[in-house]
C-alpha cells in the first residue's frame, strides 16, 4: 500500500505509451486524469464479488482461534475486528491510489500496471517478492480446511490413510497451480468465486444458521435481519454471476 501511494507521483498522467500500438492511440488530453466518484460499466459486476472474496476469512477462524492464548469469544472478536480493520485500510488505500495513478486504464492486477510503465523498478520487484512470500505462507491456512472438507465429503467411509491424505493434497495443489498458470485474468477467478462461494459464506450461510439455531420469534428484528441477509446474498450472488457470464459472452 505504501509503495502504491509513493509511486503515484512516479507515473505521469496522461499515461505514457507502453507499446507501439499505444503510441498511435495516446491522447494528450488531461480529461483522462480526472477522478470519477462513480463509474458504472459492465466491469462493475466484478466489484462486489471481488470485495466479498477479499474479506472472506472464515476458513482461517478456527485455526487462529486454536492458536490464541486462553481462547475466548471476546479475544477472537478483537482479533477479527483488528484483522478486518487493517485489511480494509490497506485495500482502500491501495485501490484509491492505484485508481488515482491509472484512472480508466487501471488493471485488475494492479502491480502489472506498474511493471508495464516502470519495468525495472527495484521497489516494484521487492513488493512482488514480498507478496509472493505472503501468499505462500497463507496457502497452508486455506489448504487445511479445503483438504479436510474433501476428505470428509468423499472419503469419510474409508479408514485414515496417509496415501489418501497425500493424494488429496497433491491434487488440490495441482489444481491451484493449473488455475494460476492458465487463467488469463485473475478478476475472472475473483468474480466467479466471489459471486458463488464467497457470497454464500458471507451472507447466505450465516443467515441460515441463525434462522436454524435461534429460538426467537420469526418476526423478531434479529430473525428478520437474518432473512434480509440471506435474500441479499442470493440476489447479489446470482446477479453478479449472470452479469459476469454475459460479459464473457460479449467478449
Automatic annotation (TrEMBL):
Stretches that traverse the bilayer: 46-66, 78-102, 122-142, 162-183, 189-211, 223-249
Main location (coarse class): membrane
Top-level taxon of origin: Eukaryota
Cellular location(s): Cell membrane
Gene Ontology molecular functions: L-glutamine transmembrane transporter activity
Gene Ontology CC entries for this record: plasma membrane
Membrane topology according to the record: Multi-pass membrane protein
InterPro entries recorded: AA_transpt_TM
Span of domain Amino acid transporter transmembrane: 26-246
Keywords from the named record: Amino-acid transport, Cell membrane, Disulfide bond, Membrane, Transmembrane, Transmembrane helix, Transport
The family this protein is said to belong to: Belongs to the amino acid/polyamine transporter 2 family.
Protein name listed in UniProt: Putative sodium-coupled neutral amino acid transporter 6
Species of origin: Spheniscus mendiculus (Galapagos penguin)
Lineage: Eukaryota, Metazoa, Chordata, Craniata, Vertebrata
Amino acid at each position: 500500500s505504501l509503495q502504491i501511494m509513493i509511486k503515484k507521483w512516479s507515473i505521469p498522467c496522461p499515461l505514457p505509451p507502453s507499446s507501439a500500438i499505444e503510441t498511435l492511440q495516446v491522447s494528450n488530453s488531461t480529461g483522462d486524469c480526472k477522478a470519477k466518484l462513480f463509474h458504472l460499466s459492465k466491469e462493475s459486476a466484478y466489484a462486489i464479488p471481488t470485495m466479498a472474496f477479499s474479506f472472506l476469512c472464515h476458513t482461517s477462524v478456527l485455526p487462529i482461534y486454536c492458536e490464541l492464548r486462553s481462547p475466548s469469544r471476546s479475544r477472537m472478536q478483537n482479533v477479527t475486528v483488528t484483522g478486518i480493520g487493517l485489511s480494509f485500510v490497506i485495500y482502500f488505500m491501495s485501490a484509491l491510489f492505484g485508481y488515482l495513478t491509472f484512472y480508466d486504464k487501471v488493471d485488475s492486477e494492479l502491480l502489472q500496471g506498474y511493471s508495464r510503465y516502470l519495468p525495472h523498478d527495484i521497489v516494484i520487484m521487492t513488493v512482488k517478492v514480498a507478496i509472493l512470500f505472503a501468499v505462500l505462507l497463507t496457502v497452508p491456512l486455506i489448504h487445511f480446511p479445503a483438504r479436510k472438507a474433501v476428505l470428509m465429503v468423499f472419503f469419510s467411509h474409508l479408514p485414515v490413510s496417509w496415501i489418501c491424505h497425500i493424494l488429496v493434497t497433491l491434487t488440490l495443489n495441482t489444481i491451484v497451480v493449473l488455475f494460476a498458470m492458465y487463467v488469463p485474468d485473475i478478476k475472472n477467478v475473483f468474480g466467479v468465486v466471489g459471486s458463488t462461494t464467497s457470497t454464500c459464506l458471507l451472507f447466505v450461510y450465516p443467515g441460515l444458521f441463525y434462522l436454524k439455531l435461534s429460538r426467537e420469534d420469526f418476526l423478531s428484528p434479529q430473525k428478520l435481519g437474518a432473512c434480509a441477509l440471506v435474500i441479499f446474498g442470493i440476489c447479489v450472488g446470482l446477479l453478479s454471476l449472470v452479469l459476469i457470464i454475459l460479459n464473457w459472452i460479449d467478449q
